[in-house]
Amino acid sequence: MDWGMKNRISRMIKPATGRSVMLAADHGYFMGPTRKLENPRKMLEPLLPYADTVAVTRGILRTSIDPKWDTPILLRVSGGASILKDDLSDEEITTSMEDAIRLNVSAVAISIFVGTSHEKQSLINLSELVNEGEEFGMPIMAITAVGKELEKRDAKYLSLACRLAAEIGAHIVKTYYCENFRKVADGTPVPLVVAGGPKLETELDVFNLVYNALQEGAIGVDMGRNIWQNDNPVAMIKAIRAIVHDNATVKEAQDVFAENKGKKL
Ligand code: R5P
């Protein structure tokens, strides 16, 4: 791996712990103004100091994140479908590598849709992006199973999807936590982060998910709704950071949340 690629990865995955708290805020690329992310600047600014990376599209980056921030950017570069369509898997690459470099991002992200009618298209999109990434020193994150594919959230499906992504050359893979997650992590020879999915009922559910994912081989999270749809988003991200970077237990994370909730931003 070239110096530039390594340097970009170590801006996101912190060398001190080998872990990362990525803040996902790219939902609008197919979901539109998702609840609580209607005004991305307002929601993201207080969270950026606690995020090791923030995942957005170029439109939100240019309009809603001040270039003064040095939070590394994970740029979503796939799209082409919306929630109004039955089939969300019909995606192409929407953003050029030149624009990603112009924006000084630390990695680019693309979804793959294993087992769908656009499986081959999404895997070829990933392979073309990896080819470009290798040329320009840009890490590629492959994202497995968004939208309706979430229904297939089991270790058999996710280990297949994650392994395919790693085999094609993705440098980081994002997937979902599931029962027997260890099987997914063991079969994926690149850093694996977990998304949160739709908002869970309680903070405890979120902390359990993060804690278990790390115990079973994830190196962190790339999480959105379970942070910014919470009424106390800063307390949430701080508590998740405690699990990811300080090896906090679920109980300790609850304490961090309790100490920080209700504080003025
Ligand atoms: C899907 O739109 C994106 O890949 C999100 O970044 C991903 O689903 C993570 O966000 P959340 O934790 O809200 O599921």
Concise structural overview:
By secondary structure, this protein is of the alpha/beta class. The protein has one domain: Aldolase class I (TIM Barrel), CATH 3.20.20.
Highlighted features:
265 residues, alpha/beta, TIM Barrel, 8-stranded parallel barrel, 12 helices, 10 strands, 42% helix, globular, binds ribose-5-phosphate
Overview of this structure, please?
The chain has 265 residues and is of the alpha/beta class. It has one domain: Aldolase class I (TIM Barrel), CATH 3.20.20. Helix content is 42%, strand content 15%. The chain contains 12 helices and 10 strands. The chain has an 8-stranded parallel beta barrel, surrounded by 6 helices. Strands 4-5 form a two-stranded antiparallel sheet. β2, α4 and β3 form a beta-alpha-beta unit. The longest helix has 18 residues. The radius of gyration is 17 Å and the shape is globular. The site of ribose-5-phosphate has 14 residues, from β10 and α10.
Strand and helix map with partners:
Blueprint lengths: L2 H10 L7 E5 L3 H4 L8 H5 L8 E4 L1 H7 L8 E4 L1 E2 L12 E2 L3 H6 L4 E6 L6 H18 L3 E5 L10 H14 L3 E5 L4 H6 L5 E4 L7 H13 L4 E4 L1 H4 L4 H14 L3 H11 L5
Parallel strand pairs: 1-2, 1-10, 2-3, 3-6, 6-7, 7-8, 8-9, 9-10
Antiparallel strand pairs: 4-5
Helix pairs in contact: 9-11, 11-12
Bound molecules: ribose-5-phosphate.
